[in-house]
Design a protein that fits this description.
The protein has 168 residues and is an alpha/beta fold. It has one domain (4-149): P-loop containing nucleotide triphosphate hydrolases (Rossmann fold). 54% of the residues lie in helices and 12% in strands. It has helices spanning 14-25, 32-40, 44-51, 53-67, 85-92, 104-111, 127-145, 157-167, and strands at 4-7, 28-31, 73-76, 97-101, 148-151. A five-stranded parallel β-sheet has the order 2-3-1-4-5, with helices on both faces. The longest helix is centred in the last third of the chain and has 19 residues, at 127-145. It is globular, with a radius of gyration of 15 Å. It starts with a strand and ends with a helix. GO terms for molecular function: ATP binding; magnesium ion binding; shikimate kinase activity. Substrate binds at residues 33, 57, 79, 138. It is found in: Cytoplasm. Pathway: Metabolic intermediate biosynthesis; chorismate biosynthesis; chorismate from D-erythrose 4-phosphate and phosphoenolpyruvate: step 5/7. Catalyzes the specific phosphorylation of the 3-hydroxyl group of shikimic acid using ATP as a cosubstrate.
Length: 168
């Protein structure tokens, strides 16, 4: 079986869905955000604060290159993985790159109690407006990088997974 790579906006369910998919398919699960934290021995918030977003993105890109070459893995990426043109090129040449596409309301609902854990959101005053702008900016990039698009709006985790299983 080839890899499954999940992309999408923060709060779209990549980690939760990735963990469940990996168990169902008996595949190794890799969360790129956790891998960055292990490598740096710091939280993503601390990395953003101390070294900046670009430093984080560079590590994230190196780990994407490393892990997407493995076999039989489910990879959950960070929401901004598509900020790099190189990452988009890597992803669009892989099979089973799944974009978990949610609208602003769905994302907001998923993130309501997690903004303190998200470096891009922790200081935002108007969360809805910020998410809308960033989502609009990233949509084309997610589309270019993926070959499967799953609409997550109004669906629970099991429904999203069932839909993914149809494609893979």
């Amino acid at each position: 079986m080839s890899n499954i790579i999940l992309i999408g906006f923060m709060g779209s369910g990549k980690t939760t869905i990735g963990e469940k998919l990996s168990l169902m398919k008996n595949m190794r699960f890799i969360d790129l955000d956790l891998e960055v934290e292990k490598l740096e021995k710091k939280t993503i918030n601390d990395i953003f604060t101390e070294k900046g977003e670009q430093y984080f993105r560079n590590i994230e890109s190196k780990l994407l290159e490393k892990y997407c070459c493995l076999d039989d893995v489910v990879i959950s990426t960070g929401g901004g993985i598509i900020e790099s043109k190189n990452n988009i090129e890597i992803l669009k040449n892989k099979k089973n790159v799944i974009w978990l596409d949610g609208n602003v309301d769905t994302i907001l609902n998923h993130l309501r109690n997690e903004t303190h854990k998200r470096p891009k959101l922790k200081d935002e005053k108007n969360l809805e407006e910020y998410i809308k702008k960033l989502l609009d900016y990233r949509k084309d990039k997610y589309n270019k990088a993926s070959n499967i698009k799953i609409d997550i709006n109004g669906k629970n985790i099991e429904q999203v997974i069932s839909e993914i299983l149809v494609y893979i």
